[in-house]
Amino acid sequence: MTDHDFKPKGAIWLFIIFVLAGFAWAVLYFGRNNPSLANNDRAVPSRQASARQPRTYTVFYGLGVYSPTNIRIHVGDSVRFQNDSDFPMHVISDSTNDVLDLAGFDSVGEIPPDSVFTYTFSQSGIFGYHNVRNPDEEGTVIVRP
Q1: Which of 28, 58, 67, 97 is 20 to 30 A removed from 79 (C-alpha atoms)?
Q2: Whether residue 78 sits in one domain with residue 56
Q3: Which residues, at least 6 apart from 51, have a Cβ–Cβ distance to it below 8 Å?
């Protein structure tokens, strides 16, 4: 190797440091002029809860299983229980001391195959439910405010 075979090892590292410093400066500079970047430690209110439209979610029943088994919704949303099995089902709220955990959460009779039962949740909480025909077939609805 001769003296004129110059390999700029230090120059590459200096260039990398310069580029990284440029990125840091750009983030600071543009973040100052963009409130959504500058205030990322504060939650930006999107829409108010009252502006949210109620939704309907579907829980499918087939082969002795509710799917999804656990579902998260908001107060005012509805859950539609769709019977995709060959047998009737009867959806009812779990109970404590022979009192339903959520009064009114009952399909009031059997839901035939290819039929649906819809229930609108008006209070928050965690509500278990099961099939009266087979109590081992169960699920949970988590209702958020």
Answers
A1: 97
A2: yes
A3: none
Paired tokens of 113: 């195959």
Name the residue with higher pLDDT: 96 or 114. 114
Position 25: which residue type?
A: W
20 and 70 assigned to the same domain? no
Nearest to 135 by CA among 58, 64, 72: 64
Rg of the chain over all Cα atoms, to the nearest angstrom: 29
Token match 């339903």: residue? 100
Q: What is the pTM of this model?
A: 0.64
Look up the CATH number of the domain holding residue 54.
2.60.40.420
How many alpha carbons lie under 13 Å from residue 69 in its C-beta half-sphere?
A: 5
* Structural domain of 85: 49-144
Quickly list DSSP for 55-124.
-EEEEEEETTEEESSEEEEETT-EEEEEE-SSS-B-EEE-EETTEESSTT-B-SS-B-TT-EEEEE--S-
pLDDT in tens, 1-25: 555 666 667 778 788 888 888 878 7
